[in-house]
Structures are given as C-alpha cells and as structure tokens.
Design goal:
One of its GO terms (cellular component) is plasma membrane. Pfam families: Cadherin. Helices cover 10% and strands 46% of the residues. It has 3 domains: 98 residues, Immunoglobulin-like; 90 residues, Immunoglobulin-like (Sandwich); 146 residues, 2-Layer Sandwich (Alpha-Beta Plaits). It is flat, with a radius of gyration of 33 Å. With 379 residues, it is mainly β. It contains 4 helices and 26 strands.
Length: 379
C-alpha cells in the first residue's frame, strides 16, 4: 500500500462539545527491496553464421516490483562467457554480435548476464543466455504470386490493407523481410515483417505492377504482385443484379471460384465480346452462411444492360453456372417478406466506399466496398 488518508477529529469537553477535523495523508516511501526479474529466467537464442557485426540476437526483458525510481533504467553487464568479446549488450538489453560467427569455429556460447537497478543500494539479478551458432541459409525463400482486385467509387478510395504476401523458407531459423522499390512508395507500402500490402488513398483506375522482394538475409527473391483498380460509375448501381450462393465463405469464393465463375458468367450474359462484366462487391448475408455477389454489365457503347435482361440470361444459363458453384437465388429485387406485389416494390442500392472489405487468400485478394439494399412497398 503506497499511502493512507486519515481523517482525525478533535472534540473538546464543553457543553455542547465542539469539534473540528483534519485530513492526514501518510505516504509510504519505497525502499529498494526487490531485485530486477528476468522473463524468462534463462534464455536460448540462435544466430546464423556470417551475419554482419551488429546483428540483433536477443532482447532481454526485465521488470522490477519497486517504484519507478528504484527500478529502471537497468544496467546490463556480461559477467562471463564473453572473454573474446564476441557479443555486446546495449543499455536497452539488446544482445548483438560483435564478430562474424563461424559454425566451424564454435557452435555454442553460454553467457552470464547481470542486471542492476537504479535504487540505493542497488539490487542485482543474473540470467544465463545460451547462444547457438547455426549454418547460414542454404535455401532461397519461395513466394506465391499475388493478384489484387480493388473496386472503389470514383476517386474515393480511402486506402488500407489490400492483401498479404505468402512466403516460406526451408531454413528453420530464417527471418524473412519484405521490401518495395522506393519509387512506388508514394502509392503503396509493404510491411517489412509480415508482408501485408497497404494501398494509400486516392488510387486511380488502372493496373499497377509492384516491385516487391523477399529476403532471408542472404538470398533476395522477387515476387509478382499485380494490383487492378476499377472505379465504379453511379449508373452501375441502378443496373445491378445479385447472385446469392449457399454455404461458401467470401475467402473460399475469391480463392476457389471467382475466376472460373467470372469466365462462365461472361459467356452467359455478354451479348458481344466488347461488353464488360463488372463485379461490384461480394459480402456475406447477415445471420446466414450465404454470400451475395453484386454485378453489372456494361455495353461496348457505354450504357448498361437492364437487370431484367440479365436475369433472363442468367436463368437460361443457370445450369452451366452451377457447374462452377451452387446458386441459391438470382435477385433483382429483394422484397420477400414485404406485403406488396413485385411490380410495386422499389429497391435502392447504396455503396459505402469508406467501408472496404478485403478478402485475401495466398494467390488472390478482392477489395470491395460494403453495399446496402433498401426496399419499400409503393402500393
């Protein structure tokens, strides 16, 4: 307990007795009776041979139960095991290499490390650090090419995470880092640790080929990353049709079915080769295991096919479409449950371009805006 607050009352012996009160605060000052504590109590670390001088090997973690003026900053010292000065230990507890290690020279080092707190008198604790030297990387990293599709309203892309690079390495202790060529950093960023790709706001319509690479410290391997950005037109939203699927997650649809279904859908609904199919969004149906895919078809002259025409085409080709994935329903209007006839149902569709959904797999990522469908009876 670091302190007490007491209320003390003095009462006299008169008639009637009079009194007054005062608050007495008692602070309990801390003495340095707790030593630093290493977590874990002892450490094991690995470094590959031929790593450059200054390579980070280990971060020591130390806590102290005393108050702040009796705890950090801590003073770290290597007591034994560093007679040849192969290691350095900085004031933050980071153990680094001071030489280029060779697996043939030594395979293991055991260091005794001391941590001393800032109290008076100072308290001291010790830990042991076992450092193993392993052979340098012999395998190159391998990475899967990534294709990213972004759908956004006109000039209204807010930016965000749009996908993740999946890379592996057969060398167990290799740490992979990701880099993006500097001239592309005005539009995209890549997290150097986990390979997440971030797009900055305001992307223009078009195709972007990113110059990304992954390195294990010895080998550097290029990765094919292609980003397609499609900007929606307001007129598309008035001519959309929704296909609803059963028992499929957005990620499974993107990774397993989207390419094949897009190809089959184009064959089913496009009247001319110059027509364009636009998948606007996919999103789960709330409270179910169903998935809605919203699309429109643009004619080569710039206009859009009406939903009724597309639904007729889809109905005729439904058997072929279901060779790719099972369809639950084809929706133009969504008035089920409303007490009005179909021709008296008005539907409006709105897009929230600042609420993006990113469905990412190892090979393909689809980023699209959230949509809302509103229906009401006109009868």
């Amino acid at each position: 307990i670091s302190g007490y607050s007491l209320v003390v009352q003095a009462r006299d012996s008169g008639t009637p007795p009079l009194s007054s009160s005062v608050t007495v605060n008692v602070d309990i000052s801390d003495v340095n009776d707790n030593g630093p504590v290493f977590t874990p109590a002892n450490y094991t670390a690995v470094i590959q041979e031929n790593k450059p001088v200054g390579t980070s090997i280990l971060q020591l973690v130390v806590t102290d139960k005393d108050s702040f003026h009796n705890g950090p900053p801590f003073t770290f010292t290597i007591l034994t095991g560093n007679e040849e000065e192969e290691f350095t230990l900085d004031p933050h507890g980071v153990l680094r290499s001071a030489v280029i290690f060779k697996h043939m020279v030594a395979t293991e080092y055991v260091l005794c490390v001391q941590a001393k707190d800032s109290g008076k008198p100072q308290q001291v604790s010790h830990t042991y650090v076992q450092v193993r030297v392993i052979e340098e990387s012999i395998h190159k990293p391998t990475a899967i090419p990534l294709e990213i599709f972004i759908v956004t309203m006109e000039d209204d892309f807010p930016g965000g995470v749009i996908g993740k690079i999946h890379a592996t390495d057969q060398d167990v202790y290799d740490v992979l880092t990701y880099t993006l060529k500097s001239e592309q950093k005005s539009l995209f960023k890549v997290n150097s640790h986990d390979g997440k790709i971030i797009a900055l706001g305001g992307l223009d319509n078009g195709k972007y080929v990113l110059n990304v690479s992954v390195s294990d410290g010895r080998f550097q391997v290029p990765i094919d990353v292609v980003v397609h950005v499609e900007q929606l037109l307001q007129e598309m939203l008035q001519n959309t049709v929704t296909i609803r699927f059963d028992n499929v997650s957005p990620e499974d649809f993107v990774g397993l079915h989207m390419h094949g279904f897009r190809r089959t859908l184009r064959n089913a609904v496009l009247s001319q080769k110059q027509d364009s199919l636009h998948i606007i969004s996919i999103q789960p149906v709330a409270g179910s295991n169903q998935l809605d895919m919203l699309f429109a078809v643009q004619m080569h002259n710039g206009g859009f096919y009406k939903p009724a025409y597309l639904i007729q085409k889809l109905t005729n080709a439904r058997r072929h479409l279901e060779n790719v994935i099972r369809i639950s329903a084809i929706l133009e209007k969504n008035c089920s449950g409303l007490d009005c006839q179909e021709q008296h149902c008005e539907q409006s569709l709105s897009i929230d371009s600042h609420s993006l959904m990113a469905y990412s797999t190892a090979r393909i990522s689809f980023v699209c805006p959230r949509f809302y469908r509103n229906v009401r009876c006109m009868c």
